[in-house]
Specification:
With 295 residues, this protein is α/β, with parallel strands linked by helices. The chain is 39% helix and 17% strand. The radius of gyration is 17 Å and the shape is globular.
């Protein structure tokens, strides 16, 4: 999550910012950032991308970094923007990686562009409403998060004030530290023991709110309060489902349910790993797509 310079492309219906990592002339993989998040997360795949001959194109969704609002009404509405951007960048066929809240967008691209997407890797991604675990099967922290999401589904008008509050928290001195304190032990200890990672995480979060809170609110609304606009059965390409068993943000039960519902999925559960799995296992994740160049 470095401060790599982003680029901006004006499409007919919007402005999109993105950054590239990995091998510039490599096999393309589209990166879908978390919620909140930006293209800065793509730096986690830079070295692994270079080694594997993979070009990682990390794209900012509406309202994040320099990408413009408004967005569509469903997760699936982002597919048209991705297709237009891929055309402008000369990407014929490409893989897709989606981390956390970016997972649903990665699946939407695969469902909407089956002739262009070669495979998907999901990391720490949530399942849709109908595929999520029962609250009784979750640990206390996950149950609290689930209750909060259920409130937003019943009262989606609360999303915007919640997003505004998050924006204020991020902008406060030591505000990011307060968010880190709410993460699972494995993630909190990982961040507290790595000042460089902590700085990159803070830069990514702050960048995601540079335009205000509307981009974050949009992602929350689309991912957690509405139908995504496609069915998991529509995703016919191979999907690698990666998840840390100690993830405190998205329960591992979601990964199991995603893998069970997707037509062609392989589940990779990592013992002891948390929500920052993508930071520590980028080479394995890219390798699971089976599209890189042989050494």
């Amino acid at each position: 999550m470095s401060a790599a310079a982003s680029r901006t492309i004006a499409l007919p219906h919007c402005r999109v910012s993105y950054a590239e990592y990995g091998a510039g002339d490599g096999i393309p993989v589209l990166y879908c950032h978390g919620v909140p998040g930006t293209h800065l997360e793509g730096e986690a795949f830079d070295a692994a991308g270079i080694a594997a001959g993979i070009r990682v194109v990390a794209v900012d969704r509406p309202g994040m970094a320099e990408s413009s609002l408004p967005a569509g009404d469903r997760v699936a509405d982002w597919v048209g923007t991705v297709a237009a951007l891929a055309d402008r960048l000369g990407l014929g066929r490409f893989g897709v990686v989606g981390v956390s809240g970016g997972g649903p967008f990665a699946l939407a691209v695969a469902a909407g562009l089956p002739g262009r997407v070669t495979g998907v890797a999901l990391i720490s991604a949530p399942a849709p409403f109908g595929e999520q675990a029962e609250a009784a099967d979750l640990d206390p922290a996950a149950r609290r998060r689930r209750r909060g999401l259920n409130v937003l589904r019943r009262a989606p008008f609360l999303v915007h004030p919640m997003a505004m509050e998050m924006s204020l928290v991020i902008r406060r001195r030591k505000g990011v530290a307060g968010l880190v304190a709410q993460m699972a032990d494995v993630d909190r200890e990982r961040i507290e023991g790595d000042p460089e990672l902590a700085g990159k995480l803070e830069a990514n979060l702050r960048r995601s709110f540079e335009q205000g809170s509307r981009g974050f609110a949009t992602d929350i609304r689309l991912v957690f309060t509405r139908e995504w606009g496609f069915r998991l059965s529509d995703v016919t390409v191979p999907v690698q489902v990666w998840h840390g068993e100690a993830d405190g943000n998205v329960p591992a039960a979601d990964a199991r349910r995603l893998a069970a519902a997707l037509p062609d999925a392989r589940l990779h559960l990592v013992p002891g790993a948390g929500h920052l799995l993508f930071v520590d296992r980028p080479a394995d994740i890219l390798g699971s797509l089976e599209i890189g160049r042989a050494p």
